[in-house]
Amino acid sequence: MLIDISLVVIAYLLGSFSSAVVVCKLMGYADPRTLGSGNPGATNVLRHGGKKAAIITLILDMLKGVVAVLLAKFLTDHSLFVALSALAVFLGHLYPVFFNFKGGKGVATALGVLLALHWMVGVGALLTWLAMAFSFRYSSLAALITAAMTPIYMYWFSGIEHYIVANVIITALIFWRHQSNIQKLVNGTEGKIKFSPSRS
């Protein structure tokens, strides 16, 4: 039980590592929390730091989710604690203890979590996001549609109750964190993805 609880704590601390802030600082860019949407995530980094910084941020954010869940799977046989670790690393990204609990919206970390919980769910989520992003060019809309679909994927491919519940909670939190984006989409003021940023 002590190991199981420790896994959840470690997952939260791992999630609290803000890839966007660290990458931008190391590459000489401004703190993404002070620019644009103020979100420390890959999309905001892309807009203000360029493709290289955004790709590194995206990969690191995904890796947090992958590592936390795979570590839990390796060290415990309890699907409940694997699911709790998945939630913990996601919550760490949203509310990082190392960055005054001001984190990102969790889309990339959620993708990493889903890939590690069940790779087919992760692949389904990735393909859904890419299809929506390239079709509509709204990162937030792609994220919301993908988030809405993933519990269905998890039920279909995994069928593990604890994973499904964790997935539903992650989906709800993604929608919660995208409230301002939803309002902008409704108002027609949401910014579109620019695949050729000025800085790279």
Q: Terminal Cα separation, in Å?
A: 47 Å
Quaternary structure annotation: single chain
Number of domains: 1
**Radius of gyration over alpha carbons?**
16 Å
**Uncertain regions: pLDDT < 50 for 5+ in a row?**
none
E-strand count: 0
Approximate helicity band: over 70%
Strand content: under 5%
Count of helix runs: 10
Query: What is the overall shape?
Result: globular
Structural class estimated from helices and strands: mainly alpha
Order of helices and strands: HHHHHHHHHH
Mean pLDDT: 92
Largest sheet: none
Describe the structure.
This protein has 200 residues and is an all-alpha fold. 72% of the residues lie in helices and 0% in strands. Helix 4 (51-75) runs parallel beside helix 6 and helix 6 (107-117) runs antiparallel to helix 9. The longest helix is centred in the N-terminal third of the chain and has 25 residues, at 51-75. The model has no long low-confidence stretch (mean pLDDT 92).
Chain-wise SSE layout:
Layout: H1 2-15, H2 19-26, H3 42-49, H4 51-75, H5 79-94, H6 107-117, H7 119-136, H8 139-157, H9 161-177, H10 179-187
Helix pairs in contact: 1-4, 1-5, 2-4, 3-4, 4-5, 4-6, 5-6, 5-9, 6-7, 6-9, 7-8, 8-9
In short:
The chain has 200 residues and is an all-alpha fold.
Characteristic terms for this protein:
200 residues; mainly alpha; 10 helices; 0% strand; globular
